[in-house]
Design brief:
Number of strands of chain A: 19
Order of helices and strands of chain A: EEEEHEEEHHEEEHEEEEHEHEEEHE
Keywords (chains A, B): Amino-acid biosynthesis, Aminotransferase, Branched-chain amino acid biosynthesis, Pyridoxal phosphate, Transferase
Protein name (chains A, B): Branched-chain-amino-acid aminotransferase
Cofactor (chains A, B): pyridoxal 5'-phosphate
CATH architecture of the largest domain in chain A: Alpha-Beta Barrel
CATH topology of the largest domain in chain A: D-amino Acid Aminotransferase, Chain A, domain 2
CATH class of the largest domain in chain A: Alpha Beta
Oligomer: homodimer
Modified residues (N6-(pyridoxal phosphate)lysine) (chains A, B): 195
Radius of gyration of chain A: 21 Å
Helix content of chain A: 10-25%
Structural class of chain A: alpha+beta
Family (chains A, B): Belongs to the class-IV pyridoxal-phosphate-dependent aminotransferase family.
Number of helices of chain A: 7
Bound molecules: pyridoxal-5'-phosphate
Number of domains of chain A: 2
Chain lengths: 354, 354
Amino acid sequence: MHNIKIEQTSQPKEKPAPDQLGFGHYFSDHMFVLDYTEGIGWHDPRIIPYQPISLDPSAMIFHYGQSVFEGLKAYITVDGEALLFRPDANFKRLNRSNERLCIPAIDEQLALEALKQLVAVDREWIPTAPGTSLYIRPFIIATEENLGVHPSKKYQFIIIMSPSGSYYKEGINPVKIMVEQQFVRAVKGGTGEAKTGGNYASALKGQEIADREGYSQTLWLDGKENRYVEEVGSMNIFFKIAGTVVTPELNGSILPGITRDSMIQVLKSKGIPVEERRISIDEVVEAYHNGTLEEVFGTGTAAVISPVGELKYLDEKMSINKGEIGEVSQMLYDTLTGIQYGKIEDSFDWTIRL
Amino acid sequence: MHNIKIEQTSQPKEKPAPDQLGFGHYFSDHMFVLDYTEGIGWHDPRIIPYQPISLDPSAMIFHYGQSVFEGLKAYITVDGEALLFRPDANFKRLNRSNERLCIPAIDEQLALEALKQLVAVDREWIPTAPGTSLYIRPFIIATEENLGVHPSKKYQFIIIMSPSGSYYKEGINPVKIMVEQQFVRAVKGGTGEAKTGGNYASALKGQEIADREGYSQTLWLDGKENRYVEEVGSMNIFFKIAGTVVTPELNGSILPGITRDSMIQVLKSKGIPVEERRISIDEVVEAYHNGTLEEVFGTGTAAVISPVGELKYLDEKMSINKGEIGEVSQMLYDTLTGIQYGKIEDSFDWTIRL
Ligand SMILES: Cc1ncc(COP(=O)(O)O)c(C=O)c1O
Ligand SMILES: Cc1ncc(COP(=O)(O)O)c(C=O)c1O
């Protein structure tokens, strides 16, 4: 159907040792490339040896930030099969990001087919040690050689893959996060709900401040009133307050996380009350003070579930659940990783076996 | 002092015809490159033949938008000399953008010296036809090969140059601009005051809407209240109301334009009242209705002064000064281009002759 050309590498790289992986340092032997040219559309799908990208210095990606990306993973199950987790949801989100950034839509079927073939070609690159996976990074960059500010007439859609280590080396460690006061990541009407480079560039400054104060991530508030909780650096955020799990609604300025959506479905299926709504930082502080803030956790492809052990807002340091992982967080983690590594049945039909 | 290596091209390109130039299509024979490596700092300043940039697909610029840029021009004066307009102000602003984007500061003296040498090497590329100039694009991109979200440990600072045509081919044509309602370019606490790719990517959508409705640019309102005037696509904005020139103050979300600053200085020197303050779109509409909205114009390196002949807000189309260039706009245009082309004395000490 889709005619994807495959050029095998003649120089396979040595694979890194499983305990050396970390995140995003090593890349597999092949990459997928698809070109866009105005008047022709997307063309020339191909799998080629992993290699540098050569662009004119006037290529628009270097100047005007027109880019989008995705992040998902391939896993080796306990039965030794290769498995993808909700890749269709990622390509759907990529197209929503494209729409916001004035990038022409990709064919989601072709993208999925390309990804399957790429993972098949580099199957040996999916690490098998517990907790490891192959992180997959689809991205699109504007490549027209032109300094005028307008949507590019040329793009490249590329998929690269990086074997990555276990996020939690010695069991799940709750993280410390800090509410950012001075800087803003996104605002309604901006690009916050798209997965585009500019959002991450603008967030670096808050991250720098968090680092300096010994916090691992920033919790962003909304850009208009500086009051409503949005999300963490690269995770959506959940609060368990008096037995109900609350997460900010998709308001146009936060990323619609696929892990977030999956967790909401799992919570519902277990009969745990869950609400998507506006939640102010004051409500969180109040719940902390009256003893009903039971759990806080982030959700994202990289960390799966990241329990928050300490939350700092202004001068107050709130210790959550004695700095330990809570019951619901643990259940969600076990359920999701169970499905991803094929240990429990995928009753949600989220996984694709290759 | 600064040891800038120069490698001359062995294959000089043919120069485009003066009437074919346009903006940002052609590039001179050489480029300046400076590398940054964590632990070493900025190193290896060099002028080399204009050539492609080759980067690993995991280079951070392709993913997380960590980039800044500048735009300025070199002119050939009526006496045949090459002249730069306030290049020091551009490199100062570049460093302010760097600070916001967590990019290490450059040595402004070195940058200026590099620019002078680069313009000298490619002096023949400065076009001489009336209204033409050599557009100069310094930019910095994050080049570390790593998918982790953090400030890059490697960068390239590059300067490319593009001969560009006269912005106004048949005299100054007032433009039609339109106030954007749905999308937001920037918000206080975000990256609006930095010259970084993400701001331009996020503005493309508004531009697309303006194009569709037959307007040449978008006028952005503030991201918090959607009420206060900010700036136009790539220009700052000025309103002459009842004899006083008003422009939005530098509030943290608009670009501190160098043309803007220059125009304020010229207005002051001529005794024309000028105010930098918050101005709501309602105030503009009211002035229009009571007949005191005398002139509207944008300022920027590319257009110098761009008179606005029609301003659309919601369903109202306001015709400004009968769609013609106003007296103050014309005076500012004549003064600035007079200084840039060496026709009138530079009493502000803005120009550097090479
Ligand atoms: C800003 C941001 N929010 C949330 C998430 C979580 O999204 P997902 O669960 O799809 O990985 C990510 C990571 O992808 C992110 O970058
Ligand atoms: C967003 C924006 N505002 C204003 C300006 C005008 O700035 P300057 O006068 O320094 O060219 C520019 C162009 O550089 C711009 O991109």
